[in-house]
Amino acid sequence: MEVVLALAIGLLTASGLWLLFRPRTFQVVLGLSLLSYAVNLFIVAAGRLRLDAPPIVGKEVADPALYADPVPQALVLTAIVISFATTALLLVVLLASRGLTGTDHVDGEEDDQ
Amino acid sequence: MTGWMQHFIIAPIVLPMAVSAVMLAFNERRRALKRVLSLITMAGLVVIAALLLWQADGRLAIGDTGPAGAYLLGNWPAPFGIVLVADRLAALMLLVTSVLGFTALFYALARWDRSGPRFHVLFLLLVAGVNGAFLTGDIFNLFVFFEVLLAASYGLILHGSGSERTKASLHYITINIATSLLFLIGVAIIYAVTGTLNMADLASRIPTVPASDLMLLEAGAAILGVAFLVKSGIWPLSFWLPRTYAAAAPPVAAIFAIMTKVGIYIVLRLTSLMFDDTSGDAAGFADQWLIWAGFATMLFGTLGILATRSLTHVAGHYVLVSSGTLLAAIGLGGQALTAALLFYLVSSTLAVGALYLIIEPVERNADEEDIIAGIAEPVFDDEYTGAVVGEETEIGVVIPGTIAILGGGFIFCTLLLAGLPPLSGFIAKFAIIDALFDDAIIEPAAWILIALIILSGLATLIAMTRAGIDLLWTPGEDSPARLSVIEVAPIGVLLAACLALMVGAGPLYRYMEATAAALADRSSYIDTVRSAPRAGENPL
Amino acid sequence: MADARLALLILALPFLGSLVAAFLPARARNWASILAGAVTLGALALLFGFYRAVSNGITVRYIEPWLPSLGLDFTFRITGFSWLFALLILGIGALVVLYARYYMSPKDPVPRFFSFLLAFMGSMLGIVLSGNLLQIVFFWELTSLFSFLLIGYWHHNQSARDGARMALITTAAGGVCLLIGFLLLGRIVGSYDLDTVLLAGDLIRTHDLYLPTLILVLIGAFTKSAQFPFHFWLPHAMSAPTPVSAYLHSATMVKAGIYVLILLWPVLAGTGTWYLIVTTTGLTTLLVGAWAAIFQHDLKGLLAYSTISHLGLITLLLGLGSPLAAVAAIFHTVNHATFKASLFMAAGIIDHETGTRDLRKLSGLVHYMPVTATLAMVAAAAMAGVPLLNGFLSKEMFLAEALEAHSGTFLDWALPMLATLASMFSVFYSLRFIHQAFFGPPPTELPRTPHEAPHWMRLPVEILVLLCILVGTIPALTIGPFLDMAVQSVLGSRTPAYSLAVWHGFTLPLLMSAIALVGGVTFYRLFGGRLNAMTNPPIIGRLKGRRTFEVVLAALIDGARAAYRLVSTSRQQVQLRLLVVTAIAAGSLPILSLGYSFGTLGPTLIDPVFAVLWLLGSAAAIGAAIQAKFHRLAALAMVGVAGLSTCISFIWLSAPDLGLTQLLVEIVTLVLLLLGLRWLPQRFPEFWRDDQVPFQVRVRRGGDLMLALMGGGGVAAIAYAIMTRPAPSGISEYFMQRAYPSGGGTNVVNVILVDFRSFDTLGEITVLAIVALTVFTLLRRFRPAAESIEIPDQQKVQNAFDDAHDDNAFGDTAEHYLLVPRVIMEWLFPFILTCALYLLARGHNLPGGGFAGGVTASIAIILLYMANGTRSVEARLHVQPVRWIAAGLLCAVATGAAAWFFGYPFLTTHSSYLDLPIIGEIPIASALLFDIGVFAVVVGTTVLILIALAHQSIRTPAARRSATSSPVDSDSQERCA
Questions:
Q1: CATH code of domain A2-50+68-101
Q2: I need a labelling partner for C292 at 20 to 30 A (CA). Which of B219, B448, C88, C299 fits?
Q3: How many interchain CB pairs under 8 A, A with C?
């Protein structure tokens, strides 16, 4: 499992980075969302792998060993929300920039090539 | 009363949040109300920050919290819940922020807050975010507050819209989102290795990390460091900064002067907590990187100051210079130097703020061609031939009040930035150099830093005199534009603050030294957090 | 003796006066000058209060603690020497004030002038009264600043601006060197206190930092007192009003450098290095200045260069290092101040009355202004070193010293001749000054017909000239005591026996003066006539300080430009690459240095389904990466697939909350991006065909690919290393154990979010709120690009269809489009809302929570919008997102603050359970209230963003008309605001 997850994270990161380096705003947006998937998975991985042991405890005092680490999950939830917000913002800014500058190049002007 | 007083620690975050939430409930037509609200809030923040500074300095006992007050959110014990720490350093930063914020906000009332909706809300939330970043003692909470202040800064840069702002913000936002992802990776790695997020807890756990995990820990720390260095505008990751700040509206740019300092603050805080002498070569490693990156940044900023034509870019590159100076100084370390760099940090932040505020009115008063007039090309006339020059009227021109005020302010800014007397810039510069000369043997890095400080100062002087002479002294045809008190007062306040820094240098510097001492032994910080009192028993 | 605190007053008076003068009305010339005069005389009176003390050799000290921890205290220190200097500053200052009152034109706004002048005077006093090295630098830089303002006083003249800037940059740069030098000095001695430093002479001279210290201090002093090669700024400072020149170049500014040299003479002088540097510099300056002075056509220019040469003379004397030479230096400093000030004033009078300072135009003025002429002649004679005048005495001393052997280098035999030569030059130019200005035929081509200056304007000159004569004739009675105490205070025990007698009998020095006089006169007779024809001095005419300065400055700036372009970029792609490279480097360096290692945990066996899932996911990700440029929709879909596999893995990895939230967020983001797609430009096919992609583009893409793979590989490696390590016993156990007992919830993740770490959540919803506002603001001013304003083809077709069939009105088809799905979606609305509320309520115990609920609710609303179109929805239901956001934030903050009233910290929760019929037991934790706040903010934000985007499509017709806002637009704003 670990290998698969690690490779998945790696591939998501790689394709995200590739898009991040591209000159078109839309590519960058997609790249960033791929990257955020990768990072979210990474954070979960940082809490180690636990299969089918959701952190839903019983009403009596729980034995931590039986559950997945809840802290990374909480962090990821926050991260998901924030990255959603920023992605939305970036999208709108790129629309505005495209409207004002007439191009969807990240520099607001076509590079000469 | 003390029962309430102890909640002061969280006020710098919650107060602006609450007020902006209230302001959201009113629509854009209630501008006057919003102005009053936000001004009162910022004024209140100044007072609160001052109180916190006092109590951090042990002059005033707020509640049952010790000299460095820690605040347990949700009343959860230290390493588990989120804790806020208002020690000397944090309190100092809070005060600087609120003073800068108050002046910038006041200035904005001249007209800038009308050039787009929701200015006050965004402004207050930015301040809340910055304050949160200074106060929090939890690295993930730090991330959250970074996002708060970044989001607000996105909004504020775009305030007033326009093509230039949009273009600049596109870069700014993209780069910062990428940086935030780095931040998350770093935090995740550190959590994976240490199993904690609380800075103090982290500091005490690091020595116990098994050798086999050290590589992960250091990798995480390094990645985290990159994120912070981007915030603090280090070369070569800061090309966006001058352009973005120049595109922003003056009051916005002024408050942004604190944002790079947030990055600096975190670097200072975490290096002092995570790496100290016990943590071996990893620390030395980080220091070397800080030193050389700082030098590169200073050099780059200096080049920029000389190269650019517009004052806003001079200011932007000066921000880089000061960041570079601070980072290099942090890298060089030493208690005396830390005290000096703190003094420098305060002084340069206020100075840049004042500069950003004064640029716009100055350029408003100048003719168009002056602004683009840039450099004095080499004048190929001969040695002095005064009498032959002839046709010069030897009757002084009456300087209009406006220009006189602006000129005075401008000169003061120049002196501050170039580190010339009589303002605090001089003390700051001399304090740093003095601290560098303190050691038994002056190492080469120290010499380089001194040289760079001097070079950057001269470059600033050259650039500023050039601009000042072009803008203020070269006789223009048109009568000077009117200048409102609302614009002058904040600049005056900031410069007065720098003057106060100079006059009251004695006690202030003692405070800085106490702060440096507190940073030097991390146990004090850890104890503060550990021994933070819980209110009664947690209610069920 | 007077109270030491009065020293403070001496210093404060000029600054206060300057402040007052600054606020006088521009026309109040009399008030301003009276004020300035009064201030100066007052300070002078105070100074005399200290005379008794200092004449008894007592050092008056007064310390005001300022920055003790850095050894910087505000220290006043008056010794005989500094007293004498202060006397010069104030005395000549008073005369200059009087002179300026009559010199400056009535139309001139003189209050500003006097304000600067007083401030400058104060700074000079600050230098000489300081008892702390750093304090000296402090006032030193202030003199640079105020001289800048004074030189640039007539800043409407180009020359004034340039001169001022040059003086400022040169002297300020020197000041920085001085600062470093003094800091080093302080480090050597261990204190910045002057008296301490002055006692540590041997320590300093033998310290291995002596050389850098010396050089830095000297650079500071030389720039200030215009020593070669830093002399170039001084002549250009002549574009200042003449009173300023008279002040700056006689008693003050340039003498500041000399002051420091004399002050530190006891500790710095006496070494070979000192002798070599200072003597040669002084000698060169002496000769260059004198030579250049000969060829000036401007009266002030001539005086300026003679000033330079006399400063060189003093420096030379100091360089010699013998006590007698030091005495001569101090003496000549005073003499030079007196005669040079008077000469400048005289030149000013001439300029004032004739309208020109050009020696080639002037002539025969003696007939028009006899008094001025006489005065000028006496002063010039003093400058030339004619007997019975003060200049003669110090010149004698100088020549005598020149004859002494000091070093055993070639300088010993060269000095006497060169000294004589220099004196010859000074005779020469003094003669030229007098002869060309006052004698010869009556002047022609003068702008004004000259006449005698008003009496009050002449008075200062008269006083100064009188002094020259008195000192020259009865030195022992006049300057004697002052000089003696000054010398005593500097040299202390090393004070030599010297005599101020006018007549020393027939000595070698006397002979040399005689030679100088005779030679000067003869040379003038021979060559004087040709000078007017020459434009610039031979030999040294080539070294053009000003041009060099400008060229260097410009070169500096151009160089900076070039270098800056080299090391900076404005391209986002480059910046991002740099960021990633740095991050990869930062992450991999520790791993490389410490060695990468797997953990101890054995791998859990691979579930094939999971593997397949990620085969899909990865393929989708890569596909998206490839397609994103040309097939946006496809790429978007593939990103969605990658996202879905992420959701599934979350659930797989026992994080149901994440799975749920990610899924919902996916949906919203997808809608968002889809709405955005419409505004992106048509993508044209690849610029290059595959076979002919330019090389550098291939390289760039290859590099990007490499970077991407390295980054991905690095992250994967770290992730694997982490996952194979046992988890450290961290903070999470605590959350597990206390979640239900203290947090009152069984879903630990949610309890963490709304209780343990609810502060994070508060920040998170703040971010949402901010982003929503920003988006709304942006889209309000949104200007779609021209080609995307066109309504989509599909609608065109539909409208065309409507036009074709007259039985249905315009837009009907679009109206009836997808009728069935629309109805279904409308029915779905209440159902989804219920789900949202359920998620919200159960969040504390089961996956869900405020955020999930909020997103669900907003999805419901979005569906409604999609179903019926913006207008018809808003006709029926009034969503006011900003209100929602405000309410949510307030609710969250208030819940947190409520704890205060129970004496608990912010966000302390209280939880209990409420047993309702049917629904069953639901948690009424105060955390729930908080979660409701979250819910509201999320709904508000999501809806606001999506509505704002959706509104663009109904704005576009308006956008075609006026790029800004339209009725629809504005009312939509009202709804959102």
A1: 1.10.287
A2: C88
A3: 325
